[in-house]
Amino acid sequence: MSNQHPQIAIVMGSQSDWATMQEASQILDQLQLPYHVEVVSAHRTPDKLFSFAETAEQKGYKVIIAGAGGAAHLPGMLAAKTLIPVLGVPVKSSMLSGVDSLYSIVQMPKGIPVGTLAIGPAGAANAGLLAAQILAAWDTELSIRLKAFRDKQTKVVLDNPDPRN
Ligand code: RP5
């Protein structure tokens, strides 16, 4: 991990979201990208949500990954309070399997965008990749690491064409 100040923040509505959101952190670890992690709840700590969003730019964050489940306000409220791009991850909920989270995050009214990923671990991992790809637009070395990541996963498929093995 480099000593570089984190340009990515991973926030989530609850400690219980970490099981999902750690997929984003694992991708960023693989890509040697530093990140900040914090629980920020839209409904339990609304004032903290506001102060996090208001100070995010001065802390140097360039992308915020926000995961939440149920009536998932966190990504949309963060997006309303900052111009930093917010990637929303719908966490799978116990009652509605995360479809509630997905609809809450993806259906932002016109004017305040949230880039919404898939429900659950795949969405969290892809949020990590997408955050890295956004930063790679200004970082050639990161771009090379992302290309190597893709080449590796392509090779795994090409090297194992028989599904019975
Ligand atoms: C949301 O409620 C969180 O994002 C979490 O997905 C869900 C359940 O939270 P806990 O009751 O596990 O704290 O705020």
UniProtKB/TrEMBL annotation:
Keywords: Isomerase, Purine biosynthesis. It comes from the Bacteria. The keyword Isomerase applies. Its EC number is 5.4.99.18. Residues 6-157 form the PurE domain. Catalyzes the conversion of N5-carboxyaminoimidazole ribonucleotide (N5-CAIR) to 4-carboxy-5-aminoimidazole ribonucleotide (CAIR). This is N5-carboxyaminoimidazole ribonucleotide mutase. Belongs to the AIR carboxylase family. Class I subfamily. It catalyses: 5-carboxyamino-1-(5-phospho-D-ribosyl)imidazole + H(+) = 5-amino-1-(5-phospho-D-ribosyl)imidazole-4-carboxylate. GO terms for molecular function: 5-(carboxyamino)imidazole ribonucleotide mutase activity. Pathway: Purine metabolism; IMP biosynthesis via de novo pathway; 5-amino-1-(5-phospho-D-ribosyl)imidazole-4-carboxylate from 5-amino-1-(5-phospho-D-ribosyl)imidazole (N5-CAIR route): step 2/2. Substrate binds at S14, D17, R44. Pfam families: AIRC. One of its GO terms (biological process) is 'de novo' IMP biosynthetic process. The keyword Cytoplasm does not apply. InterPro entries: PurE_ClassI, PurE_dom, PurE_prokaryotes. Gene3D superfamilies: 3.40.50.1970.
